[in-house]
Structure prediction request, 355 residues.
Amino acid sequence: MDRAWIDGKEVSRKAAISEAARLLAASRFPLIAGLGTDIAGARVAIALATRIGAVIDHMHADALLRRLDLMRTAYLMTTTPAEAGLRADCLLLVGSGIGQQSRALLETGTSKRTITWLCPDRAARDVAKGAPTNILGRNPADLPIVLAMLRARIAGRAIGKGPVAAKVIDSTAEELKAARFGVAVWSVEQLDALATEMLQGIVADLNATTRFTSLPIEPPDNAAGVLQVCGWMTGYPMRTRFAPRAPQHDPWMFDPARLVQSGEVDCALWISSYGSAAPEWSSAVPTIALVNSEMRPASPRVAIEVGRPGLDHDCVEFLPAVSALASLPASKPSNAASVARVLTEIAALLPNPGS
Prediction:
């Protein structure tokens, strides 16, 4: 597991690293994207971006930035999976994208726990079959309306006709208000900004008379972990450019798809050690791809195989089960290089700043 390619032709890893360093050194506006890596890889990637003046972005930045915007402009009440599993007597499961992550919550906890699922998709309904679950709405597209109806009735306001009968909305509202410790579970990636804000409004309204909080299901590829690294190393989230004077953060300006489409970026470094696919824009700009053995972009200028964190090598990453960074030993140790190691080798070949 020490393979590398240049223009589709297999070469030594040393040659690929040399070519990657040459491309980055020659770039006037580089992009470091994907960032599907462990904490060590994220730290080295951000240090590299600082050195070469690159933009940094994560493949799940859209979802992460939605959550951050809500936290900055309104409020966000959250808990951990452990507390939700042990203490919640009422679960409000919201929308799609939370089926597998919610399975443990459905299987553990008090037998008196009430469970309501708003507008689940078919896969989520299959997960819910093993637990007594009240399902409101069969169409995921109806979720914003159902949330609005539910919030209105919790506040005692009238509602009109909607995808769920008013009497069902009323009984659910009373059930939520009767909870002693309720938890709303939602997918950061699946809920849009307005639905997320409406859900947090429900949580805030319920806290006027009882205790209610929420449990966000984070995107994969160590997205939450990389976000934390960005914060402590730069003071900004992803979609930040390391300009000569100071970092610049602008989610629209530094959207990778927009940068590539406009022709501003002339070289991209795509990092995906967990196996997520490269975006369509990666074929429109000279790309250096660090990917695991399961996947390679269609036409990278340079591709270097890296190990999967927690599988091929030990790592530290965000662990959803504890909602914190945790150290994970390699389950199947191999000689595959980590992202941090490959990036360090590339950085060693770059000219010194100002030279």
Notes: The mean pLDDT is 92. The chain is about 35% helix and 20% strand. The longest helix spans residues 13-26. The chain has two domains: 4-60+221-348, 74-217.
